[in-house]
Amino acid sequence: MARPTHIRDAHFPGRVPIDTYGDGGFRFADMSHRGSLLLLPSGVYGWDLTEGDALTVDAFQRVLDEAGEIEFLLVGTGKDIRPLPAALKAAMRSRGISSDPMGTGAAVRTYNIMLGESRPVAAALIAV
Question: Buried (b) or exposed (e) across 51-76, using 16+ Cβ within 10 A?
Answer without folding.
Answer: beeebeeebbeebbebbeebebbbbb
